[in-house]
Amino acid sequence: MKSNSSKTITALLFIMLQSSFALSAQTGSPQQKGLWVAEQIDRADEGFVNQVSKAIMTLRNKQGQQSIRSMTIKSLEVDGDGDKSLTIFSSPRDVKGTAFLSFTHALEPDDQWLFLPALKRVKRISSNNKSGPFMGSEFAYEDISSQEVEKYTYSYLREEEVLGAKGYVIERVPVDKKSGYTKQVVWVDGTHWRLGKIEFYDRKNEKLKTLTFEDYMQYSNKKWRSRRMEMMNHQTGKSTQLTWSDIKFGQDLTVRDFDQNALKRVR
Amino acid sequence: MKKLLGFFGGVMSLFASSMVSAMDLPGEFSGELSFEVRNYLGKGAYGNNEKEDLSIVLQPEYVVAWEEGRKVVSFEPFMRFSSLDDKRSHGDIRELSFVGSWDLFELRVGISKVFWGVTESQHLVDVINQTDLVESPDGEDKLGQPMINLVYVSDYGNFECFLLPYFRERTFSGIDGRLRTNLTVDQDHPVYLHGDEERHMDYAIRWSHYQGGFDWALSYFEGTNREPELKANSRATMLVPTYYKSKQASAELQYVFGDWLLKAEGISRNSALNESYWASVLGFEYTFTNYHKGMDIGLLYEYLYDERGEKSGSGLNDASFVGTRIALNDEKSLQFLLGGIFDHQNGKASNAFLESSRRIDENWKWSLEGVLFANPSTGSFLDLVKRDDYLQARVSYFW
Fold first, then answer.
1. Measured between CA atoms, how close is B339 to chain A, in angstroms?
2. Domains and CATH numbers, chain B
3. What is the pTM of this model?
4. In chain A, what are the domains?
5. Which of A169, B75, B303, B352 could cross-link with A157 by S-S, CB 3.0 to 4.6 Å?
6. Which of A124, A127, A141 would best serve as a mutation to test chain B binding (most B beta carbons within 10 A)?
């Protein structure tokens, strides 16, 4: 009897919580509603545990010339902190074996180390360079790093159809002054909380880039992943396509696969 | 030319990868083949007047990894063929090792390379591997070192021990070579001041950790001093490399905050030659990140000190290193590193250098290097080679 009533109370609380979320989405201030959407996106990705995938970046300039970057990316969900990730480059061939270890934090600066295979040297690097290009691509470091809710302030813009379903458009402003953006406008579907599109506005508040997410697939752990991302730079005419393959979740990975010893060992 | 080189590179990689697949080997074969032209700007000081050194450098690598990369076997031979100097033509096994990772341990057995330190201009604490000096006068190239390295991984950082059962002698230029001393070094007859010579068991222990923006390490090494004393033989025809035992305690610290990296490393060394001294490098690196269109501009400063003064032989006993690192972060990864060393003892610049590289395509890359010697302190290594200013161009094929 006792356990039944406590279950009922939990269920009631749960319903109340849910309705308060729904309430804030409909009647809260634009800031509250924007934050609510961001929290749903974050929550939808919670519990992925770990992920291993291969990524290929295809860089295209205005003349249509291409260059390729390929890498393996491992990431690990950390309770109560940002994710850990290890990126191992396999092409272009001159950077083969170069590896990048990153511990993301919500508000503290991220911890980052780089392994330089020719010298077998592990170098602690500054994570301050958020706005710089990742491997010469149209993706900045801050675009590919783990997205923590606390890294932005939010405001709700409107409802719109996203990825063929009812969705939301929100604006987010980076908290960090070193960010290359004044704001980002994010399109997200309201059912699975998948990102459809992000528009990036530069420091002069002019539209700089658009990132579109395509080819979504749902994996066995219920997580959705876009397998093709297209970043278009409107100011330079350059673009970068990021395609993902061999996406695997729930691998046998521990924190030991994300330390400086692993950084020296991985190929 | 590029087509010809590409042909050779292509044949190499095709041959090797077909070998790997024909023998049904599980690993991955990669590598680097470089063609290098080094031009010395003037004649040498000791009758070594040849100005041009053409080299082919081959460094293939074969790696087998299993268990999610927790166990790795790698083999990395190295070969250089130099048109100028038969001592610079040399081979080495850079890597022939097994690395395994277990819950709390990491084990490395075989010939391998280990880097210690945080500074850029000099690597004082980096003592495990011998310098492959004929590769470059900057001392950044190292010979493979036989070792057993056990790491205990804990919440308080990494605790490591190294057993180094075999000593590698430093490489020096031959009689026709440049960047050498007046007399050449008699590399066939080194002298050891300890009976077990190159078989002396060297060892080292190390603790490294990080917290917030700080990374640090404390190390202790006991064994054969990597840097030999060079003494003229009885007929004063050659220099005899003399190796002796030493003990070295070292500390290194780096602090990162914002766009700043603060760096410090120091050693205290005690040797069988009855010398006891300390030396240090203190400095910083500041980066203007994304200065313009993604370009990073880094400014580097390091102060170099050696208690032995002029007797250190390096000419870096009271000196400043100033440098700039410019990375365009474009799709070709164009970058420059420009630096110089100023000797506070004589108030003059010792040397200056430039390094630059740019990717050509997926597999090709060029790099340039220039070293100019100015007014190094009298009697130092830099002073002995000061007529050996050079410019070098290299084109490399990576597969």
1. 19
2. 2-398 (2.40.160.100)
3. 0.90
4. 12-265 (2.50.20.10)
5. A169
6. A124
